[in-house]
Amino acid sequence: MKQVHNFNAGPCILPRVAIENTAQALLDLNGSGLSLIEISHRSKDFEAINNECIALWKELLGIPEGYHVLFLGGGASLQFCMLAYNLLSTKAAYVESGVWAKKAAKEAKLFGEVKVIASSSDKNFSYYPAIGDIPQDVDYLHITTNNTIYGTELRRDIDSPVPLVADMSSDIMSRPVDVSKYAMIYGGAQKNVGPAGVAFVIVKEALLGKVQRQIPTMLDYRTHIAEKSLFNTPPVFAIYAMRETLRWIKAQGGLQAMAELNQKKADLLYSYLDNESKMFVGTADKASRSLMNICFVMTEQHKGKEEEFMNVAKAAGMVGIKGHRSVGGFRASTYNALPLSSVQALVDCMRKFEQ
Ligand SMILES: *Cc1c(COP(=O)(O)O)cnc(C)c1O
Q: What is the pTM of this model?
């Protein structure tokens, strides 16, 4: 296979072994003579896969009693609406830290009043806004822990006097998290924990059943809690690949090991940008820098060379380093499965270009 360095922002790099095992199950699941996608989601085989996947989520994140882990279709984007449907009675607070956060707030407005209590839109979301006083009269506070497009990340578990809801699409399982500080954590799987097609939801049961409105069956978390995410046909392929990805994370030493590896990768690239490079410069505020998405551009003096560098990087096997159109320049996504050697290869490529 062609040797590449996969910096895609999502869908993105997954552990090779997870892809190989999933490919095998697609051909022949457990020697059954059947493909993973040819069996009933109510079969013993799939039930075991689903249960192990839930158990791995609980083990890796140390999820306390009283929470449920759900695997749902519709991506993180459906959760923007679904969480408000289930949790918003009158008012909710949102931190506007990027485009995904804005999209989440937009959906919530369909169900009640949205108070934006912090925003970094004044500087094109290049920093994580300070979360000051959290109002007590809201049903929940919504945050986006990692801003995939802008490369900023909160990287700590804040204390909140109201239920805390977090979109962790792009930094889930990248570090240990104190789940007990959150009422709900959700995201699309396709950045750190699996392929596209499944969203994960970790929700505290005590939080549900408080809104007065009627909730359509499929959009009610209690439906999926009661049926262990098997109310209707779940995304079986994506759940299988997610289980394989979580097995890999566990085999690497769990979230502490992931955090250490991610720190090393980020340190390597950020320190090159800060201490050595004359042509490239990071775009995110230093205190807000993401360990998952590292955004950089060429300095004013060298702006004209961005395309040239892109071509050189491509020839050296770099994939997916073009920045999002709202930031420009470059973005290297350094999710769990990306090896340190890929970041080293990128830095070597940048250094050589500068020389
Ligand atoms: C990618 C992403 C989303 C969107 O996920 P979908 O599953 O495509 O709906 C939402 N929030 C964040 C932070 C993301 O990175």
A: 0.98
